[in-house]
Amino acid sequence: MERNSTSHLVNDSVSYKARSTHGPLKAFLVSIRIDQWTKNFILFAALVFGGQLLNTAALVQSSIAFLVFCSLSSAMYLLNDVADQTEDRRHPTKRLRPIAAGTLSPTLAVLGAVLLGVTGITIGFFLSTAFGIVAAAFLGLLILYSHWLKFVIIIDVIAIGVGFVLRAMAGALAIDVPISQWLLMCTILLALFLGCAKRRHELTTLGDEASLHRKTLSEYRPEFLDQLLSILAGSTIVTYIFYTIDPTTIKNIGTDWITITLLFPIYGIFRYMHLIRLENSKGNPSDILLSDRPLLTCIVLWVLTVAVIIYHPFLL
């Protein structure tokens, strides 16, 4: 045990030294969390399910919308790291973030955040007024979350879910297509599911020191979060079922074959729930989604199957 602990400290020290050698540009790129941009892929849902994937103009519009939300997300990551730098220095992994580690100036981070935020909102209103309003609402939600909502139990997770719904709505507004209410409901339920999984991860990773890093963690319990995860998992699957059998969905897609794609969400959610209960995979959504090969394969196959079903007249 002592040897493992020593090895862990040595590894952390090496990692810290490696990060400390980052120049300002590299430190800035690390701080804007490019790896977290995967959360914004939900903006392409309207493009795919709206039958516009092969429309070049719509694809360009959706790509610009995606970059706008990446810009806004990165702006808030920078501001959050500046605000939380003291707490982050006490965290086993967050202390390695450039601002907490002292490799990125807080002043430079704030200037970068302002530039990213203003640029994102400006481009958003150029796309359309409605899209710009939703983008501004998303930024406002992030600000509220950073300064208030994340300190209120349950509301903190709901805020995360609302953020994903705003992303999905923005994706539809960017290309001016309607989006199924069932898909929006499925989006918020899945986001709540991942949000609860993240809280569980934080609790199991930080243990007795959890409340020192996030105050609301003192009010959560793993058993309570496990109950929420079970409820949200079932609700997400049922909502997706209703989406696939909705007459409007069948009419827009032109076939009822979309129902067979239900197998992928079922496996994906069950696989994820299995992983977050393993000792070495304690529920960090991004890490699991990007590192677990069966889960990643499931997501890719789901996307490909949906694409073939919706766009088969063009692919044959």
List keywords for this structure.
316 residues; disordered N terminus; mainly alpha; 16 helices
Could you describe the 3D structure shown?
This protein is an all-alpha fold. The protein has helices spanning 2-20, 24-31, 45-49, 56-83, 85-88, 98-101, 106-127, 129-147, 155-175, 181-206, 210-213, 222-245, 247-253, 263-275, 285-291, 293-315. The termini are far apart.
Question: How would you summarize this macromolecular structure in one to three sentences?
Answer:
The chain contains 16 helices and no strands.
Q: Which structural class best describes the helix and strand composition?
A: mainly alpha
User: Per DSSP, what share of the residues sits in E-state strands of 2 or more residues?
Assistant: under 5%
Low-pLDDT sequence parts: 1-21
Would you count the extended β strands for me? 0
Shape assignment: globular
* Series of H and E elements: HHHHHHHHHHHHHHHH
Compute the average pLDDT.
84
Total of DSSP H or I helical runs spanning 4+ residues: 16
Helix content: over 70%
Query: What is the gyration radius calculated from CA atoms?
Result: 21 Å
Sheet of most strands? none
Q: What is the first-to-last residue Cα distance?
A: 60 Å
Question: How are the secondary structure elements laid out?
Answer:
Blueprint: H1 2-20, H2 24-31, H3 45-49, H4 56-83, H5 85-88, H6 98-101, H7 106-127, H8 129-147, H9 155-175, H10 181-206, H11 210-213, H12 222-245, H13 247-253, H14 263-275, H15 285-291, H16 293-315
